């Protein structure tokens, strides 16, 4: 019996949703703002004991998986923080679209949100951040629900925000690559972000 690939199924659903969203947009007035699609990931696994660490071997594998996962989507630009681990996470995607990753300051959340929504109408953009900054970026983009990322195991989360000027933001929470768990069980998400170290 063939094993069902949940990740593949999720992204098939995403592509179908994007197609339906596009068709719906075509049926609406041309004066309505186009949808900007923003993909947000935390950096992949990193090596330990270094101030500005590189990705670990597992992290580089995950970065490659991210590029493979997004390959069929029309990514216009990649964004990463000033830290190597976020830049290396999106490097394969940047290479595939032949564009240099744009660096943003990790805590310049408001400025990044303005850039994404004002510069890329109707485009698709990939953003890499940290467990304590990705939820803030998502909130800045207009998502009302509270989102937290487990800084110990939350490396496989992929958030997709659909932003349209003057409209409530829509979003999806997907997973890519190898799932990580604690003690044989799915990792629990911490209730608050106050205990998370900076830029994990």
Q: Using only CA atoms, what is the Rg? A: 17 Å
Shape: globular
Strand content: 15-25%
**How far apart lie the N and C ends?**
40 Å
How is the largest sheet built, in terms of strand order?
3-2-4-1-5-6
Q: What is the mean pLDDT?
A: 83
Number of DSSP E strands: 8
CATH superfamily: Phosphoglycerate mutase-like
Count of DSSP H/I helices? 5
Write the CATH fold name: Rossmann fold
* Parts with pLDDT < 50 across at least 5 consecutive residues: 182-197
The CATH architecture category equals 3-Layer(aba) Sandwich
Order of helices and strands: HEHEHEHEHEEEE
Give descriptors for this structure:
200 residues, alpha/beta, Rossmann fold, six-stranded mixed sheet, 5 helices, 8 strands
Can you tell me about this structure?
The protein starts with 5 loop residues before the first helix and ends in a 14-residue tail after the last strand. It has helices at 6-27, 57-70, 84-97, 109-119, 134-140; strands spanning 36-42, 75-80, 102-103, 124-129, 157-163, 170-175, 181-182, 185-186. It is built from five helices and eight strands, in the order αβαβαβαβαββββ. By secondary structure, the protein is an alpha/beta fold.
């Amino acid at each position: 019996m063939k094993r069902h690939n949940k990740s593949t199924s999720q992204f098939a659903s995403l592509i179908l949703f994007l197609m339906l969203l596009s068709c719906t947009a075509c049926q609406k007035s041309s004066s309505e703002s186009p949808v900007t699609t923003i993909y947000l990931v935390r950096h992949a696994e990193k090596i330990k004991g270094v101030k500005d660490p590189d990705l670990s071997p597992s992290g580089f594998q995950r970065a490659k998986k991210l590029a493979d996962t997004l390959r069929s989507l029309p990514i216009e630009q990649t964004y990463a923080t000033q830290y190597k681990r976020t830049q290396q996470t999106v490097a394969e995607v940047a290479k595939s679209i032949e564009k240099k990753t744009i660096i943003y300051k990790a805590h310049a959340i408001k400025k990044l949100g303005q850039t994404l929504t004002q510069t890329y109408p109707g485009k698709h953009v990939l953003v890499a951040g940290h467990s304590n900054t990705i939820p803030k970026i998502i909130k800045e983009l207009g998502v009302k629900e509270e989102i937290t990322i487990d800084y110990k195991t939350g490396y496989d989360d992929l958030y997709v925000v659909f932003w349209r000027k003057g409209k409530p933001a829509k979003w999806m929470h997907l997973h890519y690559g190898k799932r990580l768990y604690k003690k044989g069980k799915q990792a629990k998400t911490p209730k608050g972000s106050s205990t998370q170290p900076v830029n994990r």
